[in-house]
Amino acid sequence: MNNPKASTSTSTSTSTSTTTILFFIVVFLFSSSSAFNITRLLGQKPDFSSLNDLLTRTKLSDEINRRQTITVLALDNAAVSSLSSQPLDVVKKILSVHVILDYYDVEKITKLGVSNKTSVLTTLFQASGAAVDQQGFLDVSLVNEGEIAFGSAAKGGALNSKLVKTVAEQPYNISVLQITAPIRVPGIDSGSPPSAPPPHKAETPSAAPVPAPKKSPVKAPAPSKKPVAPAPSKKPVAPAPSEKSDAPAPAEDGADSPVAAAPVSDGPTAAAPVADAPVSDLPTGSAPEGQVVDATKDVTGGAASRMAAGAGLAAALVSCLVVII
Known about the structure:
single chain, alpha+beta, signal, FAS1_domain, membrane, FAS1_dom_sf
């Protein structure tokens, strides 16, 4: 027969062994999933209470605790106060730059600075995907006489913060190192790095002023198809010779008989008769020499008188035509 007490004892021991194994499995998984807790580490350091509060509010503490190996560049209460005026999302970006995705204690990071003039380290901000260009990287360099300095690797960044001391550490999992000031990252508050100033453009000559369009001249009225004759002048253009004035006939060597010019009127005027010079009664053949000369003078004087009379008639005709037109 089977002993019931022995069966009960065997079952109890088996259950205990199973429970123990499950307990160790849970502990192992928990320790594997979270090798440290940044909030608990900083909770033991009153000088870093403000930083611990910001890590909790921005949820960065959860992201840090999910990592296996990490280095936190910690700011004490005085140094972190300069971030209090920034929006919480900007504070999260700035603090994520202070989390290096590898384990560095003081000894390891000092060797890094000595062996290399400048080393570049990757931060949690780079892993977030929000970094632009080199904003998610840090420059580490040895300055002065053995001092370790940190600065942004982004364009325009500077080594503005220095290593102070170790705050807390769990070898090969987490190292908390104190630094003097927040690392300044150009453009992190706007999401993009400051762009370089645009190249200076040569000044282009200003365009010549365009004159305002001139108004088109007013066209003169079109001439009438039928020509309009000018109004006749009331006064004759050429003055009429006086009726009583005697036009002296040009005579050479004192002509004996002057000839009177015909009067000119506004109407058509007939040609005035011109008196012939008196003909000498003396026969031509028997005339003395002195008389022949006088007769010649008389003939010449008569021709000149006729020319003067013709000129007067022509002037009268012109005056009449002007009046008629």
